[in-house]
Amino acid sequence: MKKQKKIVLAYSGGLDTSVILKWLQKNYKAEVIAYTADIGQKINKKKIFKNAKKLGVKKIIIENLKNLFVKEYVYPLIRGHAIYEGVYLLGTSIARPLIAKRQIAIAKKFNAYAVSHGSTGKGNDQVRFELGYHYFGPKIKIIAPWRIWKLNSRTDLIKYAKKNKIPIPKDKKGASPFSVDDNLYHTSTEGKILENPGNAAPEFIFQRTLSPEKAPNKASYVTIGFKNGDPITINRKKLSPENLLQKLNFLAGKNGIGRVDLVENRFIGIKSRGVYETPGGTILIYAHRAIESVTLNKETMHKKDEIMPKYAELIYNGYWYSKARLKLQKIIDLDRNKVNGSIKLKLYKGNITITSRKTKSNAYSIKKVSFEENKTFNKSSVERFINFHKKKLR
After folding, report:
1. What is the pTM of this model?
2. 25, 84, 137, 224: which could form a disulfide with 312 (CB 3.0–4.6 Å)?
3. Domain locations in the chain?
4. Annotated catalytic residue 305
């Protein structure tokens, strides 16, 4: 008897991937392995197992990758202060490379001939997934249903689900849901009324942040300790990467910090509008820049600022594993061993204020900067410095 071929599907348990699972079974006559990477998204393991088993899946894999995700993907991004187009903290972009890597590993382990994902034919994630697939498994077939099937819209998807008795989730208003992606670093919400940039985002779509108006009238304070460029403590308590980010998500979210409403330029050439929440990440980038201000020299900081847009764009476009991104990461991390100390922040109604910077580094000198007379800075050399730069004006 001929052995049944296998496909590893990135499976969330939701509508899109449940439809894809059924479609793969019907059209490829293959055994589908349902793979879920737990990277801190809202996850209902019972639902995933129930839905997958109902669709005839024999092998269901849920892998806890939260610590790995934060330590090896989010933290390097934070060290690079990566922000795409001045607004987007790359929350979805940074998650896809890890999922793709593990999906290929699962495919190799179970001798699957193909992998599949639920990204639409108009989105960026299809590129991010497939560049990751190609990097780790160039000989493994990629099946992208949204580019090849005859379901052309969300309406078609729902019709297919009804026909095949696949449960259809509802949003808080009882309608079909927005397109939502979430992980420990962020939540993105797209689609429906958000597609028109003239419409204000309804308050009910926000999942992890209060509005600044509803945030507490009393400020919160948090001290973040850094070692070798990475956050390791909150209020002097050492935490795992997963727990540290989770703690900051809570503190920032309740104080109305981390919301952005943006129209971004997708890699494939169209503009899209979305509402993103990155509460803990917003605090971390703010705090990391603050600790670098008292530990790194001007040349190093300015070099990082110079390469950041390109670094962010590479991540956005799916080039996390590329030589170009790795080369920039080496520049970013060149002096990370000097980035040690703590930053105390005040969180209040959507705002972050630095209240204290502490470090043993001597990059910042009180003696040199003081307005009191001192002998540590040679003021007579300043005139020569200005005269030298006058010549560059011509």
Report:
1. 0.92
2. 84
3. 6-66+95-168, 187-358
4. no
